[in-house]
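Bit of a strange request maybe. I'm writing a small parser for structure token strings and I need a real example to test against, not something I typed by hand. Could someone generate the tokens for this chain?
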Amino acid sequence: MGEKKRREEAKKQEFLFERKNYLFMLIGIAFIVLGFVLMAGGGSDDPNVFNPEIYSWRRIRLAPALILVGFGVEVYAILLNPNKND
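Reply from user aminoacidic:
Good idea to test on real output. This should exercise your parser:
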């Protein structure tokens, strides 16, 4: 009976991270996706017409900053140890 129980315990698959890690990973992915969505657009239908909207503050400053924040949150989520007791 003991051998069977040990096999069942060995079959149990554990996740690499805890729930808190995955939550922070989803938040980081949301920041990255939001940054890329804000960066999109601003083009012109006519290639002979210049659209200065491509150089807006949103596309040049805000969107890349959100993407970098998202990557920072991802690194934090990977390095986070939720079982650490202070």
